[in-house]
Amino acid sequence: MLAAVACCTAVGNQEVNVFTTKLGGIHVPHRKNTAAQVPVRIPIPSVVRISTQMHIGAPAIPTVKPMDKVCVGTLIADNPDKLCSPIYSSVSGTVKKIEEVGSAQRTSTFIVIESDGNMTPDEAIAPPIIESCDDFIAAVRKSGIVGLGGAGFPTYAKIRVPSGKIDTVVVNGAECEPYITSDTQTMQNEPEEVINGLKLLMKYIGIPRAVIGVEKNKPQCISALKNVIDTDAVTIKTLPSVYPQGGEKVLVYNTTGRIIGEGKLPLDAGVIVINCTTLAAISKYVKTGMPLVEKCVTVDGSAIAEPKNVIAPIGTPVSALCDFCGGFRSTPKKAFLGGPMMGMPITSFNEPIVKQTNAVVVLDEKEARIPSPTACIRCGKCYDTCPFGLMPFEIAKALELKKPEQLEKLKVNLCMECGCCSYVCPANRELVQQNKLAKSMLRDYQKEKGGAGK
Amino acid sequence: MNEKLIVAPSPHLRSSSATWKVMLDVIIALIPAVIASCIIFGIRCLAIIAVSVLSAVVSEYLFELITKREKTVGDLSAVVTGLLLALNVPVSANIGNTLWQIAIGSAFAIVIVKMMFGGIGHNFANPAITARIFMLISFGKTMSPWTKAGTDILSGATPLTAETLPSLTDMLLGNYGGSMGETCTLALLIGGIYLIVKKIITWHTPVAYIGTVFVFTWVLSLCGYDINPVYQILAGGLMLGSIFMATDYSTSPRTKWGKVVFGVGAGIITVIIRVFANLPEGVSYAILIMNILTPYIDSFTYKVPFGGEKK
């Protein structure tokens, strides 16, 4: 628990830890069934549906129209003026249609491409010429790479930092969610790509040090990385196998001892946090010039017949991935992209995978159903396990009573939505969901208050 | 492939914990004390326990039936309340009186103290403690003459008021007068350790509570008061109260420092009542008073979360 946060004072970027604080968390079942499964390539899908919103920021605007011929790596959508990552075709073939799927809140655009089965690469593809920091950032933007750990923040925007502000790169190799082993595959099969990407980042952005955080349940990744590290500037930090080690603030604290305060970014603590697979993708792009068009995805869960790590073109429907993994062993009842703790549920197996998809998990009837919530017994388990020491049971109460000023006091905005509270709750209450609603209520309240002050 | 999928908020994986499992663990932790009470005070203890538990469960069910609320007896919390109240009552000479009186006490605990405040998790006072006080006031004859150990029912004094003290071994094994579940310290400690190991409770409240009573009475004995701190912590309802009642979730603080404050406060009040008031026992009153203060203890022991700014 939070033993002595008050005793840590920040002096510039240098932390003085009088007492060390151990952050809370939970022991989730690992279920890393696919850790030893070398990724296999899926047969070329006949149709891919590529979303124009596979990143945090503004949606990309299609640059192709139906009947256009495209190759693997042809630019199909971009929005250069906004925070946006360009999108490339993942197959060669013909643009069939540009599909708008609307709901009351927002519309999503998909570019549907029919594959010709040849996977012809685009002629224009050539390794980028990088001579300066600006060249590097431009290349990372052009690569279409976003945060591949799942968040999908455009990487070029993350590394575009004021010079001298960052002294450490924190590489996220925690992979703390159950089931997922796609980062494990990157680290154990392509450690040289991870380290090469890291060195490029350190060289061009001008960052002297790096630390790679890996959970101790992946000793094979630690030794693979150790074998290729040839500099003292890069160290590996073995993290405990306690969920959520991969949470940004948790990772930064456990690797560097620095605390990212309320409303602050890793930049303010002098660090850049980047996923290991993202680094490998940068390295591969710099070598080949082929943008991000495919992804290694862990396909697992109680309903999947043969769990596998699958390399699939972006836009491949989830159904094709499931078929490739032997179909279902039992009736699928719930499916989500990402891990079971924070993954996004999908409504249909026709949904395509996106850039930041690292896993597809399909659960059977038994695991899909969560018992209905009962009354809070105030056991405080949510508070005891929250990595940040938030009080979800009090937040839920303040939300119910519609008291945004109380939510402000309870610091609900610090919640990273890791789900530990809901996981441990004996009354099966949807605590993290209530935290999300509470954040939204607080946002409205602060907006209103800010507006009234003007 | 066209199966309908469940769409629900994450996390999609939950631990196996459940309210009824928590309550079942408390019941398991009380089994040594139940067995000890039967050995020390005779098998009729089981009759008292059965009536108390039955009354608690039935009154919760009836209340929910009448008020058209969801039935919650399956969470076993009423069983825990009934069991705890029974263990807080002495075996009196007139078993018939004890039986109907505990039935009323148990119903009082559930209906007045728990359900009228919103049911499980919403009550501010511990139902069993409050019902015990209710019974002390209403049925003084049943509640005050502490039964001596053994099969013969003779009224005797609790060691807190007795002139000749039982041996320490008897104190640990519970071979002396008192409420049926509070005398066997050993059985209660086994239950407490079980609860701590199973992470149902933490050590903070019991240790702070018992420690405070020990230190405070020791200081008083140094000041010339005729009290023995060892007997003070072994006798009366202190073990039962500090392990099983002061750790009740909805009526005690949630922060670790809050639990310590609760324990220290309850310890001080207990000693004050035992030494300075005209009552042999203070645990129930001490816990009830601390129950009332719990929201305040929680708010002043609130810790700013990791990365939060203090204001």
Walk me through this protein's architecture.
The complex is a heterodimer of chains A (454) and B (311). Chain A is built from 14 helices and 19 strands. Chain A is α/β, with parallel strands linked by helices and 454 residues long. Chain A folds into 3 domains: 188 residues, Rossmann fold; 164 residues, Ubiquitin-like (UB roll); 73 residues, no CATH class. In chain A, the strands form 5 sheets. A 6-stranded mixed sheet of chain A has the order 3-16-15-19-17-18. In chain A, a hairpin with a 4-residue loop joins strand 9 and strand 10. Chain A starts with 7 loop residues before the first strand and ends with a helix. Chain B has 311 residues and is mostly helical. Chain B is built from 13 helices and 2 strands. Chain B starts with 18 loop residues before the first helix and ends in an 11-residue tail after the last helix. At the A-B interface, strand 17, strand 18, helix 13 and helix 14 of A face helix 1 of B.
Q: In terms of structural class, how would the helical and strand content of chain B be classed?
A: mainly alpha
Number of helices of chain A: 14
Average pLDDT of chain A: 92
For the termini of chain B, the CA-CA separation is 54 Å
Tell me the major beta sheet of chain B: 2 strands, antiparallel
CATH architecture of the largest domain in chain A: 3-Layer(aba) Sandwich
CATH class of the largest domain in chain A: Alpha Beta
CATH topology value of the largest domain in chain A = Rossmann fold
Percentage of residues in DSSP E strands of chain B: under 5%
Unreliable stretches covering 5 or more consecutive residues of chain A: 1-18
Tally of domains of chain A: 3
Shape by Cα distribution of chain B: globular
Helix residue percentage of chain B? 55-70%
Q: So, CATH architecture of chain B?
A: Orthogonal Bundle
Level-1 CATH class name of chain B: Mainly Alpha
CATH topology of chain B: Ammonium transporter fold
